[in-house]
Known about the structure:
Elements: E1 3-9, E2 13-20, E3 23-31, H1 34-43, E4 49-53, H2 59-70
Parallel strand pairs: 1-4
Antiparallel strand pairs: 1-2, 2-3
Amino acid sequence: MRRVVGMDIHRTFGEVVIWENGVLRHAGRVDMTRSALEGLGNRLAATDEVVMRLPGTAWRSRAYCRGSLHG
């Protein structure tokens, strides 16, 4: 079944939601630190779709999650 993980990135934290089996649930906050983002990336499945809303200054966060998922 399809699972979509959404993140709304802010300066010091990100709000995470998960849409799965037609149900949207709040999954909490993640700190905008390298270790916290890598931890989130490690919990993602290879089939998860990840959607992020982030300002131009937050592209580093995307790289940390992606590196954990594919590295």
